[in-house]
Specification:
The protein is an alpha/beta fold. It has one domain: Response regulator (Rossmann fold, 3-Layer(aba) Sandwich), CATH 3.40.50. Helix 2 links the parallel strand 1 and strand 2. Helix 3 packs parallel to helix 5. The longest helix is centred in the first third of the chain and has 11 residues.
């Protein structure tokens, strides 16, 4: 069932690394989802407020730095928030204030980097309703 619906799914990715963007494409190819990658928080706002629904947002702290409030605001604006969000945080961030705040975003999960690709893909599938 998930595979049949995959063409309708959209994943927005905020990550400043071009290499990571290419890895997401390879990792998520089996999902058949459309990927929309952005490198700066300002660029994510346009994606989230666009016409097409975003099913999942993947947001790496390397892209927003100290601008978490901006990202949090974009996710909450106008009822167009993605159904689910994964925040990728580095080790010290997960247990600190940023990890607590990210965990309070509705529909959000936090994952610590580095992580195993299979574990990450399993989380993405779970959050998009496709099982693990």
């Amino acid at each position: 069932m998930f595979a049949a619906m995959a063409h309708e799914r959209r994943i927005a990715i905020l990550d400043k690394s071009v290499l990571a963007g290419n890895l997401y494409k390879l990792l998520f190819a089996p999902l058949g989802a459309a990927l929309v990658t952005r490198r700066r928080p300002e660029e994510l706002g346009g994606v989230l407020s666009g016409r097409q629904r975003i099913d999942l947002a993947i947001i790496n702290s390397n892209a927003f730095g100290r601008k978490f409030e901006e990202v949090e605001s974009m996710l909450a604006k106008g009822g167009r928030a993605p159904a689910a969000t994964i925040f990728i945080l580095q080790e010290g961030e997960v247990t600190g204030e940023l990890g607590r705040r990210a965990g309070r975003v509705p529909g959000a999960r936090v994952i610590e980097r580095p992580f195993h690709p299979d574990e990450f893909l399993s989380l993405v599938r779970e959050m998009m309703g496709g099982g693990g």
